[in-house]
Specification:
This protein is of the alpha+beta class. Helices cover 17% and strands 44% of the residues. The longest helix is centred in the middle third of the chain and has 13 residues. 16% of the residues are buried.
């Protein structure tokens, strides 16, 4: 049996608006979802939430309370078990995108 994938997501509400991102790849490409992704080896769950939030949106936040934890294998029809934890996050600031030098 394969080890389950551990995933996190962030709920950010600002002025009564829910932050969503459009998935860019994979099974859910093009779908709207809250920011999130897989936890990296050795990473704390709260660190993964903040990293995914900045990486997908450019918004720096603080990880708050755990809202829900789900086994989504059956829900999404995945071939392996995935466990998703969703946290409430407080937005701190918008991080400007990194400009890369063109060769």
């Amino acid at each position: 049996m394969e080890a389950p994938e551990l995933c996190v997501s962030a709920i950010v509400i600002d002025d009564e608006r829910l932050l969503l991102v459009r998935r860019g790849r994979g099974r859910a490409q093009g779908d709207w979802a809250v920011p999130g992704g897989r936890v990296q080896a050795g990473e704390m769950l709260a660190e993964a939430v903040v990293r995914e939030l900045v990486g997908e949106t450019g918004i720096e936040g603080v990880c708050g309370n755990l809202l829900v934890c789900l086994n989504v294998k059956l829900i999404l029809g995945l071939t392996s078990l995935a466990v998703f934890g969703t946290w409430c996050c407080q937005k701190l600031l918008v991080v400007p995108p990194i400009k890369r030098n063109e060769p």
